[in-house]
Amino acid sequence: MDLEEKIARLYVSHVPKIGPKTFQEILKFYPSIVKIFEQDKRFLIEQFGQTLGKSLYSLRYEYDTKKLEINLEKYAINFTVFGDSDYPDSLESLSDPPICLYYKGNLSSIDFSRSLAIVGTRKITEYGRSITRKITEGLVNKGFVIVSGMAYGVDSIAHQVALSRGGKTIAVLASSAHLPTPVGNTKLYTNILSGDGAIISENYISDKITPGSFPRRNRIIAGCTLGTIVVEAGIKSGACITANIAFSEGRHVFAIPGNVGKTQSEGTNKLIKDSKAKLIESVDDILVEFDYILESVPTSDKNKWEGCSKKEQEILQVLGRESYTMEGFSRVLELSTSDLGAILSMLEIRGLIAKGKDARFRLIL
Fold first, then answer.
1. pTM of the entire structure?
2. Domain named Smf/DprA SLOG: which ranges (predicted)?
3. C-alpha–C-alpha distance, residues 83 and 96, integer Å
């Protein structure tokens, strides 16, 4: 996707009447947002109604590429948009994926097909602290990326342990990506970036935190990962909101059982009781659900690529960064699914790629 289209999508994300779901409907009729800006006012009102049509028309006067680049550069923030090659493939399958993501760090180096969220209470107990450490260590040792919200308590420990074990971790913030939130975790924020991780947010530089910012943040945590692990959480906690979103989106949900009557255990126990989460006692209870990933480890060994066509090598190169569904490949490589089918089948026969239970293709050793 070229920069002009990326910026057009970014601007559309700031139109009050355009949320993620409305944006998806617009894309069905206009795959190129730039083309919308070329339409006259009357046409846009006929297509989208008075309020939305006028908002889209007015964007052409606010559409200042240079100003945007200067603002983002000032805070060393990058951005990706729905449909872009850097946009997490796992997040695109969310029912309401963010139109735009702002980030710091190296997003392209993150393998979201091997990411899991660890969330929980800020008022963590010693029991929760110990369990969080053990679970995080076990997952990092198996090559999983740890995603959380950088809050105090469970989130912070998950990030810290991942870094101490040499793993990658991602913090999803309710504030803009350039603002460490909470401020007390500024050092952790810095360490995540220096550890080749990433800081992600749906909020632009000037966006303010509102009560709704946190549930929106939680859906990104749930949406960009294979599953969510809840260590300790109250019933109405953000961690349980994240778990419920993951459950509704068909992702794995895991919960550590806790003492009956303890506030920190009410949420996890209810998730288990309602059959929304798998009860786990050790990291092995999680890993058993991801055998297909552990058996299919991404590799950058290109010696096996000899004899592959240019198009086949292009597909293998893409898989070196992330796994993709057939539809994901079709979008990124701009090929029809029918053309891709034969190529992918041949690469599977050669033992270069494998299709997992989640319908995603990955490189194999």
1. 0.77
2. 79-290
3. 14
